[in-house]
Amino acid sequence: MRGNADTSRYHLISIALHWVIGLGILGLILLGLAMTHLALPAMLKFQLYQLHKSIGITVLMAVLLRIVWRLTHRPPALPEMSGFEKNAAEGAHIALYLLMVILPMTGWALVSVSPFDLPTVLFSVIPWPHLPILADLHHKAPVEALLKLLHRALAWGFGGLILVHAGAALRHHFILRDTVLRRMLPSFGKGAIKESQS
User: Fold this and answer.
1) Model pTM score
2) Rounded distance, CA 136 to CA 106, Å?
3) Among residues 106, 131, 173, 187, which is most buried (max CB within 10 A)?
4) Is the predicted pLDDT of residue 4 greater than 80, yes or no?
């Protein structure tokens, strides 16, 4: 395993995946709120659902790639902090990773068990299969209702956790004035070139 050029910062690939996933999740939240709370024409709502599914599967794939990368590349060490803060930070990161996998999986399951049996075509190009077993259930409505409730509850909880995560990063940057936020921000120039070659 090769180390980073700058061990105080995340690798360029980690940074890219972090922000791609983050932007994808932001898009999913906005789409989810629009789909469930706005009075939209039926065709537009259908298109938003398709886009929501496409981005959700893309985020899931990126998260799985991020997990593999994280397991094979040591992240920079945390700054000096109390045992409680360190445990809270590690627990929050574990919860974020779990939800980044579980949420799109529940969405995929929800689509798979829908009585409407609508196909999923990622970005109107790539056909995506339903999950096995769920697509063949005879009584789909109760399972769909349960999955819809679970997906919605997890989404709200995930949104709250994201706010805590962002608030903690801003606290480190503006109050504690350490490098926690900066080490996940893209760098440009010679430093970025060296980092991408590590």
Assistant:
1) 0.86
2) 17
3) 106
4) no
